[in-house]
Specification:
The complex is a heterodimer of chains A (about 120) and B (about 110). Chain A contains no helices and 11 strands. Chain A is globular. Chain B is mostly beta strands. Chain B has no helices and 11 strands. In chain B, the strands form 2 sheets. In chain B, strands 2, 4, 5, 9, 10 and 11 form a 6-stranded mixed β-sheet that branches. In chain B, a hairpin with a 4-residue loop joins strand 7 and strand 8. Chain B is globular and about 40 Å long. The chains are: A mainly beta (about 120), B mainly beta (about 110). At the A-B interface, strand 4 and strand 5 of A face strand 4, strand 5 and strand 10 of B.
């Protein structure tokens, strides 16, 4: 199993450009997440999905959009890139959480985005 | 008060030593607790979950104090390969939460030969 894969690994955008960050998982996980990590900061949740066709906002959704047409794929769209979106973006997936305990989230290798 | 607070370090520790660091969380309704490890420029990976009774995994011991709202991680007989950033992670939901996890900024650990 490849686990969670993300493309591209690196990208430089100009202000106002658009792009889609791709995320695919082969573990048949229903739950998928997008986080961003700024230097020296914790991960912040952008959007999440509990299954195909269902998405919801996280803590920092402004400037982003997502879709979930299949279980495997969860792309993140930036419509008008801004310097504040310079960050490392991580996609993650998991099984549904247990009632009595946590569940592990599996992360992709990340996409390093710079907006100039 | 920040949701999850950690001392950023760095903790510089000689190989073979024991090191411990704590994390505090602000939401008393938090249910699930984890330590993740993140190597430089890599993705986070689960190190261990933290249970109310405390739990151990080899050289690693995690403790939870709900009354004081803090979580600890103890590493015994530290190895060079333990050098990494350790992220304290908390979820509001009992099962890890469909809306994701709250991450601390991490504690940077450097094991020196």
């Amino acid at each position: 199993n490849a686990g969670v894969t993300q493309t591209p690994k690196f990208r430089i955008l100009k202000i106002g450009q658009s792009m889609t960050l791709q995320c695919t998982q082969d573990m048949n996980h229903n739950y998928m997440y997008w986080y961003r990590q700024d230097p020296g900061m914790g991960l912040k949740l952008i959007y999440y999905s509990v299954g195909a066709g269902i998405t919801d906002k996280g803590e920092v959704p402004n400037g982003y959009n997502v879709s979930r047409s299949t279980t495997e794929d969860f792309p993140l769209r930036l419509e008008l890139a801004a310097p504040s979106q310079t960050s490392v973006y991580f996609c993650a997936s998991s099984s549904p959480p247990h009632k009595t305990g946590g569940t592990e989230q599996f992360f992709g290798p990340g996409t390093r985005l710079t907006v100039l | 008060r920040k949701e999850v607070e950690q001392d950023p370090g760095p903790f510089n520790v000689p190989e073979g030593a024991t090191v411990a660091f704590n994390c505090t969380y602000s939401n008393s309704a938090s249910q699930s607790f984890f330590w993740y490890r993140q190597d430089c420029r890599k993705e986070p990976k689960l190190l261990m979950s933290v249970y109310s009774s405390g739990n151990e995994d080899g050289r690693f011991t995690a403790q939870l104090n709900r009354a004081s709202q803090y979580i600890s991680l103890l590493i015994r007989d530290s190895k060079l390969s333990d050098s990494a950033t350790y992220l304290c992670v908390v979820s509001r939901d009992s099962g890890g939460g469909a809306d994701g996890l709250t991450f601390g900024k991490g504690t940077h650990l450097i094991i020196q030969p």
